[in-house]
Amino acid sequence: MNNSNLADDCTDGPAPGPDLAVIIPTFNESDNVRELIERLKQSLAGCSWEVIFVDDDSPDGTAGVVREMGRNDVRVRCVQRIGRRGLSSACVEGMLATTAAYFAVMDGDMQHDERLLPQMLGMLRAGGTDIVVGSRYTRGGAVGEWDAKRVEISRFATRLSRAVVPAGLADPMSGFFMLRRELFEASVRKLSGIGFKLLVDLFASAPQPPKFKEIPYEFRSRRAGSSKLDSAVAWDYGLLLIDKLVGRFLPARFVAFAVVGVLGIAVHFLVLILAFRVLHYSFSVGQGAATGIAMTFNYWLNNIVTYSDMRLRGWRWLRGWMWFVAVCSIGAVANIGVASYLFRWRGVWVPAALAGIVVSSVWNFVATSIFIWAKPRRA
Ligand code: GDD
Ligand code: MN
Hints:
Blueprint (H helix, E strand, L loop, with lengths): L2 H7 L10 E7 L3 H14 L5 E7 L6 H9 L5 E5 L6 H10 L5 E4 L11 H9 L5 E5 L12 H14 L15 E4 H7 L10 H8 L6 E5 L14 H16 L5 H27 L4 H24 L8 H32 L2 H23 L8
Parallel strand pairs: 1-2, 1-4, 2-3, 5-7
Antiparallel strand pairs: 4-6, 5-6
Helix pairs in contact: 2-3, 9-10, 10-11, 11-12, 12-13
Bound molecules: guanosine-5'-diphosphate-alpha-D-mannose (GDD) and manganese (II) ion (MN).
């Protein structure tokens, strides 16, 4: 193709990038996408904006619907992630994919009130504020049709967040907020990116306390599809808090791995007691069964909670299990070796046993995070 043809094809001159990027994490929201885009067009008429859907390869084809909309409107963009899950990390990647000066984060199910976006943008533009939070717990805000249990859980989570978030922020659990690029760039390398609560993460990771304002909104009912908030989200929130509190010294995943390990010891003893004491199998048979079952239990639980964002399924689950057994067997050999050596050297059995446990736990953790739940490494 020569240059004149190129010029014919590209009739548009350069157009400036948008001022505001609305970042929408999605997982199975295909029935909400079209309506949400229409509402954004209405609310943001006259603004310079784009919307970025960050979709974790939803089986319902959300990404395809977004791209279809984007074909007629450059403001509609899609970032599709494959083999990864997570609301917070999705939002972070959306922000990294735009040139906008301001970022809004909201749900893809119309529970957050898009009509507030222009007002939020105005507040940021006026200066002196880094982040505007849509709040259910300030005067005029509401949680909508939540049942008593969910209200209670949300309040409890809010209370827990006080360890890492300033007390003045009424709704740190909010998933609806708008921030300046500067705040994001100052915090992005320190973000944990775990789970659902990006706002907590942002506040806990910012080098200086962000200057914030809250505006009330009423949390609406989900339009279509179903909520992804489940017990795994609660666990992720726990991990996030651990990471923010002690992550500098100990990775949160290691803490989770260790907790699972302790539960595994309990399972081991349950099986051993059942086989050896109740069913009167030999000790070796009981110990063997207990070891196998406890290992499998640990693998299963780590796959669900410690590595919920990289969960293995199907035959990859089976392959991971074989690796896990292999890795932990090496860990057990190292455990016994170190403990026996220390015992011979010092003659004290409790510290020797503990040292063996520490060595094998660290080995198990490091090896499984490399060979089984491998995360794309930072360069
Ligand atoms: N990319 C991606 N990956 N998106 C996800 C994932 C994921 O693993 N899990 C959920 N989402 C998307 C959903 O599709 C939805 O657009 C949005 O994240 C929020 O998920 P919901 O399942 O609708 O959560 P919720 O309504 O119960 O809770 C939301 O609102 C609360 C109140 O503001 C969340 O934003 C909470 O963090 C927030 O506290
Ligand atoms: Mn929602």
